[in-house]
Input
Amino acid sequence: MRLDLVLALLTASVSASAVPQLRRQAAPACPAEREASGDGGPGLDGSVINLAMIPTDYGLPFSTDPTNDGPCPSKPGKPDIPCRCPPPRTDPKFLGLLALALKQGFFPSCSIKVTMTLDEFNNGSTEPGSDAQKQRATTMTQVLQSLNNTAPGVLGCPAASYPFIAAQQTTGITGQGSSGGG
Output
């Protein structure tokens, strides 16, 4: 073995041990992530949502008691739903959280991506069966299923409370009697 090679290896190993180790920093938290159970928080302006893209009929009557977490009947043969579901399509909390989801690109946490932007939601294709219609329904579902109330263990509005939107996720066709461009 060559002496100069051994000497170079020893020098490199001593130099490496003298250099302080860089610590790996944790990835930063999601920017602007907000708790879905909040009241929408400051700056969440639901007026940026084009209401023409939200169905006027979810397939069940809108809740008239947003604070009632008790069970209410849905459709025959379907499970009961929280009486506060579904919220009216003009509900400020729903619209504010929908705007937040579309602006930040995820909802309710970083791990759950939103597949369209606010501009695409408001101005994308309204063609029945289009991917844009399916993505709108999926985004609304993410928000509706994450709407929390103050009661412990209460998660959100189940799909049984908005069957037309749930169906739109797969068909891209808005429900009977609905708007949303189709």
In short: Confidence is low (pLDDT under 50) at residues 5-28, 32-43, 177-182. The CA atoms of residues 69 and 87 lie 12 Å apart.
